[in-house]
Design goal:
Elements (H helix, E strand, L loop, with lengths): L3 E2 L2 E2 L1 H11 L5 E9 L3 E8 L4 E7 L6 H16 L17 E5 L2 E9 L11 H17 L6 H6 L8 H11 L4 H20 L7 E4 L8 E4 L4 E4 L6 E4 H14 L3 H14 L2
Antiparallel strand pairs: 1-2, 3-4, 4-5, 5-7, 6-7, 8-11, 9-10
Length: about 270
């Protein structure tokens, strides 16, 4: 396939792909924003100067069932008036497309580009706004239950929570500043599990990557819009909360964590 070079798609290939799969979208410019471990991300600009984000997942990272769960969660949150990334529906009435590259299927999604401001975690106001929105997200999520997903496959994050904690440690073994934190957390959870039934911990829909980013302030900074739901799942709320705690630890922001957890507990129902 001549249009593919080092697994990156050419501008012409992407333009034709969008024209073939989406109605009334004529892309004039393609910009590579990021080559990541899990996906390649492009900014697309159409003839009317409207911008989109086009994400193509690595073949080993995102399987169809995961992507469908992600889309179900996002659409569920939108219906509850929670601000999230907007996926564009294609001509086949799906929110994703399949790309055949060298006889390997990869999935891609087209999203509306959103403009907003980043949170300032040096201010108590923005920390509280973040905590309140995550508490709302977890509260709304109580209404969501994807029975088909839960009954047909195990959660990739933590149906076997301790085993996955070990995997997380391995991932960060090359980052010395993270190793001590993860090992201590893993030991704590093992001791906790010996004393208490971990099944009693609250499960819900989670974002899976709430480290302080992956959101923008919108509507005159009164609301947050959450994005990058690559790791979303139906799982332990502890994952979202501890991910943010980890972020505070490695940034040496203990005060930030104390403000966050106080507001989160106050607003989660």
């Amino acid at each position: 396939m001549q249009l593919i070079s080092n697994y990156l798609l050419s501008e012409l290939f992407i333009k034709n792909l969008i024209e073939k799969n989406y109605k009334n979208i004529n892309i004039q410019k393609v910009i590579l924003l990021k080559r990541g471990i899990y996906s390649d991300i492009y900014q697309l600009i159409d003839i009317n100067h409207k911008r989109y984000v086009f994400k193509i997942y690595r073949e080993q990272f995102k399987v169809k069932q995961q992507l469908e769960l992600e889309i179900n969660i996002i659409n569920f949150l939108k219906k509850r008036q929670f601000y999230v990334t907007e996926y564009v529906k294609n001509i086949f009435c799906n929110f994703y497309i399949t790309i055949d590259l060298f006889n390997i299927e990869r999935y891609a999604v087209l999203m509306n580009y959103k403009i907003g401001n980043k949170l300032d975690f040096d201010t108590e106001e923005d920390i509280s706004l973040y905590a309140n929105n995550i508490a709302d997200f977890h509260t709304i999520g109580k209404e969501f239950l994807n029975f088909e997903f839960l009954n047909s496959t195990e959660s990739l994050l933590s149906n076997n929570f301790l085993s996955n904690m070990e995997s997380y440690i391995i991932i960060f073994m090359k980052k010395d500043k993270h190793i001590k934190f993860f090992k201590e957390l893993f030991d704590f959870i093992k001791n906790y599990k010996n004393k208490y039934d971990i099944k009693n911990l609250s499960k819900n829909i989670i974002h899976g990557d709430l480290h302080g980013g992956n959101c923008l302030k919108i509507n005159n900074n009164n609301n947050l819009l959450f994005m990058d739901f690559d790791f979303c799942n139906y799982d332990y709320l502890l994952i979202d909360v501890s991910t943010y705690y980890w972020s505070c630890i490695i940034r040496k922001k203990q005060n930030e964590w104390e403000i966050f957890i106080k507001e989160y507990i106050k607003n989660w129902h």
